[in-house]
Amino acid sequence: IRFWSNIPFITMPLSRAHGKSFAHRSELKHAKRIVVKLGSAVVTRGDECGLALGRLASIVEQVSMLQNQGREMMIVTSGAVAFGKQRLRHEILLSQSVRQALHSGQNQLKDMAIPVLEARACAAAGQSGLMALYEAMFTQYSICAAQILVTNLDFHDEQKRRNLNGTLHELLRMNIVPIINTNDAVVPPPEPNSDLQGVNVISVKDNDSLAARLAVEMKTDLLIVLSDVEGLFDSPPGSDDAKLIDIFYPGDQQSVTFGTKSRVGMGGMEAKVKAALWALQGGTSVVIANGTHPKISGHVITDIVEGKKVGTFFSEVKPAGPTVEQQGEMARAGGRTLAALQPEQRAEIIYRLADLLTDQREEILLANKKDLEEAENKGRLALPLLKRLSLSTSKLNSLAIGLRQIAASSQDSVGRVIRRTRIAKDLDLEQVTVPIGVLLVIFESRPDCLPQVSALAIASGNGLLLKGGKEAAYSNQILHHLTQEALSIHGVKDAVQLVNTREEVEDLCRLDKLIDLIIPRGSSQLVRNIQKAAKGIPVMGHSEGICHVYVDSDASVEKVTRIIRDSKCEYPAACNALETLLIHRDLLRTPLFDQIIDMLRVEQVKIHAGPKFASYLTFSPSEVKSLRTEYGDLECCIEVVDSVQEAVEHIHKYGSSHTDVIITENEKTAEFFLQHVDSACVFWNASTRFSDGYRFGLGAEVGISTSRIHARGPVGIEGLLTTKWLLRGDNHIVSDFSEHGNMKYLHESLPLPQRNTN
What we know:
The protein is built from 25 helices and 26 strands. By secondary structure, the protein is an alpha/beta fold. Helix 13 packs antiparallel against helix 17 and helix 21 runs parallel beside helix 22 (591-602).
């Protein structure tokens, strides 16, 4: 028992054993009992007179949704004073008689001041109305709410504490949402914050301390504190260097500079942090977030419970390694150092990595074996994904060859002059290639992707964040270790970072200040999810690989079955595998058509009939549900077209602009197809599977892009570069080129420096 103001009270509730808070955001979805604290700035309007009804309705909707999921929700709310102030002002204006207003004169009426209203009177006038509003809103979701008004004495007196505790438990048992507030109509003026100098003692003097005390008293799993700032910053929000703190740990207070408190309310951010730390010590997890931002307030509570990276999460468990934000900064700094190296030094790093892949083959394969065994035991991967996960000696040898190709072709990638212009005498302009910045590459079940992408990032001077699937954790770990070993020969180990924390992909896609480009490598669903989640960061890639092969009426019998078999059966899970086979109508019921069908049956390819193809058959295979389907397995659709023009139109309507092929001996028809199909890769008499960075001679690829800007098709080193302009002058100013100036623009093209072709 401790003492405050000569009144004894208990620092931790008698009925609660010391609990353990959640260590990671991802665990918040398991929170059963939740307290939501609504700050004055959240509940009230900007003029501090009246309630923000739209925000309040959104919060009630989220709380109701979580309550209906079986959680036990409690609300600690402000707003009674503001609501009462609105009502009392209205009453004062109405009480002034028309005669008094007329005698005061028109000008004086305009300047008539409303007297300052005492806060306790406002609270008394506003509490009933505030509760009536909550009741009306919760009724829309068939949820009952109950009001509880408390003061500090209710926590100091043991019997009152037990009564309060019993009342709250009974309300929760009956699926009622308790709405708790300090009884501002009778509370004494606020006292100094002396009892908050440590986290062992807390008394109720504002709704922050009330929410913390209540959360611990009720053994709450999660306390959500909504304010008018995004969370806790390392310096006052709005200052130039202020950074949002994602996770705050006890003992970090010294690294934070607190600013002024919010426009309304009793406590500032410092009071919130101290109350949060007290609740954390009592076993309750805490998140401080923004409840006023119009873009996020409609889902801020549910996002927090789902474990999304919103606001500042208070945790007692510090991760062993750096945070993803720190990794992003390390990759940025390391990438800039990498870009400043000589081309021969970057190539040397890649050659070293290629050697390590073969020299450390046994260790790599042993780690990969662990991943395969775990995946098979858990049964969580389909056979095509298991094949992607598997590494072999031949795969590692191919990887090493590809990396050496990258090293050899990267000698003049960064800093290459692509345009030179003489603007005027002694004023020369150059456009040179530079790295994009920091890349985030997210890949599934493909550990071989890690050294490929790392080599391309090194060659192009980019910093790199890698997020691999957990099914390849052991393989990714050793491959990243070898990558950093290679980088260390020139002191740029930090340029490539492997994200091992529990960051969700959606959270990574929000780090727009750290990441310049996102490259997803995986299923079409993964790519679509990333494209949807990315906020302000461009995404390079393709969401689907719906590749077509069109067999023309002039196709060679010898070539058709070979190309189709390779396109569909060599690796059906690949994004460049055949998904729709278009047959010219004249080939139906010919020996060539029969050979195609027989070959597909032998290869155990399931055939789906397009609408037109099905109409030609008495007994057709199952009709396709959609002509825009990526099967990713030994399945394909067959459809009939009347001409090459119709084939092109079909591809444009149902394709994904990835890779499309024509098989024909008619050069004119082939050229028409090549010129008119608007896809990233268009081939004549060649398998769709050639759509690959290694097969194109790029050494490797970070992915295949179907976007219209920057890079398209297999993306190698060139696709990871952008440009900047360098202008070299000698005391030049724009006014010298005006009508009355003494200089003239020349705009002469200058020859480019000779490229290194070795």
